[in-house]
Design brief:
Blueprint: E1 14-16, E2 20-21, H1 24-34, H2 39-42, H3 44-48, H4 59-70, E3 78-89, E4 98-110, E5 116-126, E6 132-143
Antiparallel strand pairs: 1-4, 2-4, 3-6, 4-5, 5-6
């Protein structure tokens, strides 16, 4: 897959990723990795008595999956992930939900030396019902094709 340079994208450009179904294994593995064994994620009987009525995925699991899906839509020549400007958890992600990511270029600028680009992205995690379950802005540093002399 050919990776895109800073010059290949413009403010307003948008992409939609392929889907990814969240499984029980995802939640169990994320709990083991993160150490977050909150019963809302791990205990079906406990979760049944909550406002959600069943177990939900960790919010940060959704963010991590967004990062993976978003790395190919668009396939940028990313040097570094610089940060999250804001992130909102709007609705739960359940076991069996299929999520995808809509990405839009909000801002772009060259660094002071002009040898790298900074891009601010709008990211929306959307479930199979078309509901936005998470959204926010991320910033990355990407390669430029034409480096200054």
């Amino acid at each position: 897959m050919e990776r895109l340079y800073y010059e290949d994208v413009e403010v307003g450009d948008e992409w939609t990723s392929g889907g990814r179904t969240i499984t029980e294994a995802d939640i169990v593995n994320f709990a083991g990795l993160s150490g977050d064994f909150n019963p809302l994620h791990m205990d079906e009987e406990f979760a049944r008595k909550t406002i959600f009525g069943k177990r939900i995925a960790h919010g940060l699991l959704g963010l991590a999956v967004m990062s993976g899906l978003g790395s190919f839509y668009p396939p940028m020549r990313t040097i570094a992930f610089l940060g999250i400007k804001e992130w909102n958890f709007k609705a739960p992600i359940f076991i069996g939900d299929t999520i995808y990511v809509k990405t839009k270029v909000l801002e772009k600028r060259l660094t002071s030396k002009g040898d790298r680009g900074i891009i601010v992205w709008e990211k929306k995690v959307i479930n199979q019902k078309g509901e936005v379950v998470q959204e926010g802005k991320t910033t990355t540093m990407v390669e430029v094709r034409s480096k200054p002399a």
